[in-house]
Amino acid sequence: MPYLLLALGCLIGLYTLYRFMLKANIHQIKALFLSCALIAMVIALLFMAVTGRLAAALALMVAMAPVIKFIIDAWNADKKQKQDEESAAPNYEVSSVSEAYQILGLEDGASADEIEQAHKRLIKKVHPDAEGSEWMAAKLNAAKDLLLDKKDS
Questions:
Q1: If you placed Cys at 94, which of 18, 70, 142, 150 could pair as Cys (CB 3.0 to 4.6 Å)?
Q2: Same domain, 61 and 101
Q3: How far apart are CA 9 and CA 2, in angstroms?
Q4: Nearest to residue 75, comparing CAs of 17, 41, 28?
């Protein structure tokens, strides 16, 4: 029975990791692995200290100091890169009317109702809440707005 519970826990953990990997960007994945590595090192050191191998634990900690410094530096560099990327505005704009029609999968000269229907149909598939792409949803919204603004004027 304990092995069954352990296997079930592992399956749930792997499924959770799989779901995380589907939605995560590279910075989140990197942060996850760096966090796991740091936590594993701390647990190993605590285990060695508790089981009476304090001298070996201290020696291991001194030997791991460069690795720990590398992990912390990588973490800080990742944070800085993420902040730099967030400060740069992403390009969600649609450059032309023909590109907007192409994004929505419509022929040139489609009516406002067709534009709305195509947008609704596609946004259901690519919306971030439905595990879609924020970038694609923004492109669809920009294409719809451009075409409807063109129709109004």
A1: 142
A2: no
A3: 10
A4: 28
Cα(62)–Cα(142) distance, integer angstroms: 55
Residues 64 and 129 in one domain: no
Q: Check whether residue 49 and residue 107 sit in a common domain.
A: no
Q: Measured between alpha carbons, how far is 122 from 141 in angstroms, rounded to an integer?
A: 10
Tens-place pLDDT, residues 47-97:
988 998 888 888 888 888 888 888 788 878 878 877 776 666 566 677 788
What are φ and ψ of residue 107, in 5° steps? -85, 155
Domain boundary among 87, 115, 136: 87
For the record, the structure tokens of 98 come out as: 């023909």
Could you give the C-alpha distances from 20 to 25, 135, 145, in angstroms and in order?
9, 18, 32
Would you call 109 helix, strand, or coil by DSSP?
A: coil
* Alpha helix ranges (H) inside 24-133: 26-50, 54-87, 97-104, 112-126
Q: Which structure tokens are listed for 22?
A: 């589907």
**Tokens 């050191």 -> residue:** 45
Containing structural domain, residue 102: 97-152
Tokens for 31?
């942060």
